[in-house]
From TrEMBL:
Pfam families: PMM (PF03332). Pathway: Nucleotide-sugar biosynthesis; GDP-alpha-D-mannose biosynthesis; alpha-D-mannose 1-phosphate from D-fructose 6-phosphate: step 2/2. It comes from Candidatus Uhrbacteria bacterium RIFCSPLOWO2_02_FULL_53_10. This is phosphomannomutase. PANTHER family: PHOSPHOMANNOMUTASE. The lineage of its organism: Bacteria, Candidatus Uhriibacteriota.
Amino acid sequence: MLDISSKQLFVFDLDGTLAKSKTPMDAEMDALLSQLLERRRVAVIGGGWLPQFEKQLLEPLTCSNDVLKNLFLFPTSGSCFLRYGDGGWEEVYRHEIHADDRRRIFDVFERAFQEVGYEHPSETYGELIQDRGTQVTFSALGQQAPVEKKMAWRGSAADRRREIVAAMAPHLSDFEIKIPGTTSIDVTMKGIDKGYGIEQMRDRLGVAVHEMIFTGDALYEGGNDEPVKRTGIDTVAINNPEETKKHLRAWLSTCG
């Protein structure tokens, strides 16, 4: 049984955990998260880049600016870190992938598609491979795909992400390749993953790992949340934001 009252930092994945895929978190999640921010520090670490964090998390968040000092953002799987200061959101660090390497990653994706005989769906929504600077992300249905389409695709016969990753791995041994929740594959610099993000939280926020708890929907083998486990952090696996809300309600009842 976890002693929630002893936790000083609550860490959440974003997409599929605090909000449905690529959509803003709803009013109920906003209310619960705002209450938690008034009592504890909160970090959000996700595969999306900062514009996605703004859309899904910051824009719908209604807590006061004073409380934002308790919120810490780790976009693109922990490859950058932002915290709220007197002048607004301030970047603490950013691990940019060199432009030549980003082009190489694009090429490796294309070669992997050919190697495994992967064919893109006939209908896609926006970019399939996106350059996020600190991360390159493949989205099988496109960056703007409707949530219901993504959920139907995930785990279907068309979902061949594990094969694609296996084909890419020999050519990108100097990078991390992870599978997030629904339709994506993320590539970051070697050593940069959500486990690295937890270590940065420990070192930069001065919170021991045993005083943290992580909640995410991709803690399974190969998922982009799985690397947090190597830090020894307590984890809570969920399947959707509604399950996250249940945990938040319970935790708020014990967090004075």
